[in-house]
Amino acid sequence: MNHERIVGTAVPRKEGREKVTGKAVYVDDMVLPGMLYGATVRSQIPRGRIKKITFETSVAWSEFVIVSAKDIPGKNCIALIGDDQPCLASDSINHPEEPVLLLAHPDRHALRKAVDAVSIEYNPLPAIFTMEESERGSEIVWGTDNVFKTYLIQKGNVDDVWSRADYIIEGEYSTGAQEQLYIENNGMVAAYDAKQGITVWGSLQCPYYVHKALMALCDLPAEKVRVVQMETGGAFGGKEDYPSMIAGHAALLAMKSGKPVKIVYDRAEDMAATTKRHPSRTRHRTALSRDGKILGGEIEFTIDGGAYATLSSVVLSRGAIHAGGPYYWPSVRIRAKAVATNAPPHGAFRGFGGPQSIFAMERHMDRIAQVVGLSPVEIRRRNFLQPGQTTTTEQVVRELIDLGKLLDRAISVSEYQTKKQEFAIENGTGATKKGIGIAAFLHGAGFTGSGERYLSSVVGVEGCADGGVRILVSSTEFGQGTKTVLCQIAAEALGLRYEDVTIAQPDTTEVPNSGPTVASRTVMVVGKLVESAARGIHQTLKLSGMLGDSYSAEEFRAACQAYVAGHGQLRSWAQYDPPPDVFWDDEKYRGEAYAAYSWAVYIAEVSVDLTTYSVSVNDFVALQEVGRVLHPVLAIGQIVGGVAQGIGFALFEKVIWQQGRMQNNQMTNYIMPTSSDLPPIRVFFEELGNVHGAFGAKGIGELPMDGPAPAIVNAIEDALGVRFDSIPLMPEDIYDAITARSLRGEDEVASVIR
Amino acid sequence: MRSDPKDYELVAPGSLQAAVGLLARSPGEWLPIAGGTDVMVQYAAGKLPSRKLVSIWNLAELRSIEVLANEIRLGAGCTYTNIREHGVIGREFPMLSSAARWTGGIANQNRGTLGGNIVNASPAADSLPALLAYDAELILISVRGERRLPYAGFHAGYKKTKLAPDELIRAVCLPRRFSGYVCHARKVGSRNAQAISKVCMAALGRVAGQTVEDVHIAVGSVAPVPLRLSETELMLRGKVINESLVSAAKKMAVAEIRPIDDIRSTAKYRAAVTGNLVAEFLNLLSADGKA
Ligand SMILES: Cc1cc2nc3c(=O)[nH]c(=O)nc-3n(C[C@H](O)[C@H](O)[C@H](O)COP(=O)(O)OP(=O)(O)OC[C@H]3O[C@@H](n4cnc5c(N)ncnc54)[C@H](O)[C@@H]3O)c2cc1C
User: Fold this and answer.
1) Where would I find the H helices in A222-341?
2) Which residues does A2 contact at the CB level (< 8 Å), separation at least 6?
3) Kind and range of the H or E element at A104?
4) What residue ranges define each of the domains in chain A, with the CATH number in brackets?
5) Residue A581: what pLDDT?
6) What is the predicted pLDDT for the residue at A2?
7) What is the CATH number of the domain that holds B187?
8) What's the CA-to-centroid distance between B38 and ligand 1, angstroms?
């Protein structure tokens, strides 16, 4: 089936040379004539009302540009899904990092003292910091009930199953906030000119999100707002919504001062103020038959959205849809809820709700296995979704996925069975206990449900005057390989060389809206559109009689040059067209949740050192079916990086909160794993192909974030015989649990058998 | 950077004499900066109160390593890389080499100095337990001359030292009398590299059969200052290592320390791990006696 010359090969990264030679231009490298530097004065208290703002006389305030909410020409909000988040607080404060004032000065060093010399007095109000407090409702901090969004997914009649069940197994699982920790902090430069309007250049994922937010904030028409993405040093979802805030701030300062303004956060501000992964809590109640088959269950999935709605509803949706894992549920009821607390809003982070609910599902599967008396392998095998069956949203699995086969292969390459036996013997003595754990999971690619239909993405491909081909998309490169893979797709579709294709730097005056660069949608959805737009170029050249059906790269180049010389322009557009058989009910949350899923089985091997209670991951097998792999090196890179981030999520990365503020907002004390904390990560692909994606590709970017945490915690339970249902799992927690167990000494599992 | 460079002054006198001369003229006004790996972290965070800095980086007088018959004299300006690369230190003071290897990353090891680690006086500093275990002595210098004092007792309290405002540490002296000792050092950080210790230990000892002849145990990150566990040592000397001695030593070690809950760990975890590390060391010592 694979006759392709370019997709499937490891071509060099399009922007790789610039990056490694230091020529790539990031936002902080940009200097415009007369440019000022901007800084943000933040609230410091979790909740209250602003009483009075005082400017201490130690600072020469006349040198500063000062912007408050009063200076906002348009609507004081960061337009996204709902418009509840103010750009600058004018009265109410709802979290401790809320922007109140903006300052700008020609000397960036002068800003810190000025920020510190603004003192704000408040009438404080009681604040809430946990999901439980929010649910109790004793303080209403958002809307009428602290609830941003709820979903109810129902399949079959779950109320019937309890009386038939041989086992009813309950569990509660939780996950913590996680910081994206992209290498490059957030930053923006803005320039304003009454005729041209506002232009911002920045580190961002979604140019058209920023565009929309600036139109509303600055009260400008679309053509007077221009957003340009600069080279972006990592994002992981962390540059999905917050860049609109910073762009808004820079724009307001630029409009007021008439000068270009740069705002670049330092690490401490970036970590404290910008978004993180939503903390979550999942409750499972599952009915099983004697032979270990799921009969039905109830799942309650709750996330902490922080102070404003931002993306919480969408994160919640993905989390809820993934909550049942890759298993067949004859009946299920999933209740999902995003609640408000007085912390900075949580946002997008690789996996987007999936890693949270999948952690719960996969920990719960091991618990079920214990109660039923089956192995973790067997319990999964008996419940895997099969082609023809339906998911929790009643989507029929049409892909010919064989999860049992994936499981067998993962078991074999990880030597799971041998290791299980070895560890059982070795663990008897010695201060180190070893264990091995499995996680099986799926991840839907593209926007959820009708999302892609609403987005209705457009891409362009252009034949250039020099005969080369250029791709026009707003999809952004932030290290993951967007530029490279889209160029591969266009080159493949047109039968050109990889070098013949380039891609425009996203600039809203130049590129159409191909949608946000999120949700593992770029290669599958945007790539498919690039493929068809590219074919359109060939069509045009063919119809004009300049090119036949088969041609060399040189002939193509000549035809393209001649066409542009004659017609001025050669462009081809493609717009997303939903597949006809796709059905999704937004009300009932039922139907085809995703056009395609990627499937995976991950196996982690750990050892726990009982001298220090610390966990080492010694070996990691990541096996997945992701459709066609278009670029093997980048694809492996995505998996390895995702697994590393997953290890951080499970064992290292703990946000220490106090009164809604992150206390450890430095890389010294917010611990992400280094290379010396990582095992060999062995990556394996199965490639079934996919009719919806370019050359058979599916989503790959988020998938590897889902599996590591449960696989690792399952392995830790295997090593110690102690259950852990909450991450991040720190050595201190392991110490506490071991001490508590030796004090208690009873078998917990027994208590749940019915 | 949360500080304004205009608020700071930096001079680089170029010789040790000139540096101590400057300190003597207005004691306490000038802050020495060696590798800057602690000072610049404070500067970047906008938390460096001293506005006048005197650079002692790379002063030849502070960078020598002298191997004498009975001791090694290590210039206070030696970097972790200098320490790691030194053969005699590696052979005779392996716990100091290990501490140097565990400190930060390569860039930090090229810049950070032993003198800086001592005077910065963090209870979590990684090389300090090794200095305590090896009975290090310090040579301090000022225009008034040099004085020599044991390193143990140099830390007067949390982030306080016995250094006079006009003094610098000139050298660290390590007595060459630990050949034949079993030593065991371990850093327990929040990850395997680039981590601040939650507990660190450097211990050495000698047994005859199973009888403890001599033992030094030093721990970091579990009290306001790095600590020698002198009562535990006293209790161990002359005793036969067995299970009950090990568990008594664990208990006594835990009683000697003053760990706290902080952003990095908990007091009870630190106490338990300290006990476990002491036990691990005693088991190694015992194994050596059996070999
Ligand atoms: C990324 C990073 C990682 C780190 N990791 C570790 C680690 O793992 N373990 C660890 O222990 N530390 C670590 N540190 C801290 C630091 O590197 C060490 O404490 C180092 O030894 C400090 O030495 P310096 O020469 O850079 O000190 P400086 O910052 O120059 O000075 C520190 C203090 O010592 C004083 N001082 C320096 N030399 C003298 C002298 N000769 N006489 C009198 N006073 C003097 C200075 O006045 C100042 O008060 C790390 C730091 C960074 C930035």
Assistant:
1) 242-257, 267-273, 312-322
2) A8, A628
3) strand A99-105
4) 36-125+181-273 (3.30.365.10), 280-448+589-752 (3.30.365.10), 457-575 (3.30.365.10)
5) 75
6) 54
7) 3.30.390.50
8) 4
Other CB atoms within 10 A of residue A353 CB:
30
Do B100 and B166 sit in the same domain of this protein? yes
Contact flag B263-A431 (C-beta cutoff 8 Å): no
> Do B159 and B213 have their domain in common?
no
Spacing, Cα A142 to ligand 1 middle (Å): 47
**Would B244 be classed as within a structural domain?**
yes
Q: Is A109 within 8 Å of B6 when comparing Cβ atoms?
A: yes
**Best residue for ligand 1 mutational test, from B30, B38, B110 (most atoms within 8 Å of Cβ):** B38
Strand positions, DSSP E, B190-246: 197-208, 211-220, 227-228
Q: What is the pLDDT of residue A745?
A: 54
User: Are both B171 and B187 inside the same structural domain?
Assistant: no
Residues B12 and B66 in one domain: no
Instruction: Give the integer Cα–Cα distance in Å for B25 and B8.
Output: 19
Q: In chain A, positions 424-453, which contact chain B (CB-CB < 8 Å)?
A: 431
Do B258 and B153 belong together in one domain? no
Confidence at residue A579, expressed as pLDDT on a 0 to 100 scale: 84
Structure tokens at B178: 């630990």
Task: Show the domain range for B24.
Answer: 8-55
| Distance in angstroms (rounded) separating the CA atoms of residues B46 and A177 | 27
ipTM beyond 0.90? yes
Task: Tell me the pLDDT tens digit for each residue of A410-455.
Answer: 999 999 999 999 999 999 888 999 999 999 999 999 999 999 999 9
Do residues B81 and B160 both lie within one domain?
Answer: yes
* Mean pLDDT, range A80-97, rounded to an integer: 97
Q: Is B213 found in the same domain as B121?
A: no
In a domain, residue B2? The reply is no
pTM of the model: 0.97
Q: What is the whole-number distance in angstroms between the Cα of residue A215 and the centre of ligand 1?
A: 50
Best residue of B102, B122, B192, B277 to probe chain A, by most A CBs closer than 10 Å = B192
- The structural domain count of chain B equals 3
Q: Measuring CA to CA, how many Å separate B170 from each of A393, B56, B75, B140?
A: 73, 11, 6, 5
What's the gap in Å between the CA of B291 and the closest CA on chain A? Answer: 19
Domain-ending residue, one of B132, B150, B175: B175
Residue-averaged pLDDT of chain A: 96
Place of tokens 């459709």: A627
Residue pLDDT, tens place only, B38-82: 999 999 999 999 999 999 999 999 999 999 999 999 999 999 999
| pLDDT digit string, tens, across residues A626-683 | 999 999 999 999 999 999 999 999 999 999 999 999 999 999 999 999 999 999 999 9
Confirm if A596 and A559 have CB atoms less than 8 A apart: no
Q: How sure is the predictor about A749, in pLDDT bands with cuts at 50, 70 and 90?
A: very low
Instruction: Please judge whether A112 and B272 are an interchain contact, meaning their C-beta atoms are less than 8 angstroms apart.
Output: no
Residue to mutate (ligand 1; options B43, B120, B155; most atoms within 8 A of CB): B120
Is residue B241 a part of any domain in this protein?
yes
Q: Does some domain include residue B1?
A: no
Of the three residues B149, B175, B201, the one that is the final residue of a domain is B175
Of A610, A652, A739, the CB nearest to B191: A652
The label of the residue with tokens 């209250």 reads: A48
The answer on B261 and B186 residing in a single domain is yes
Amino acid letter, residue A233: G
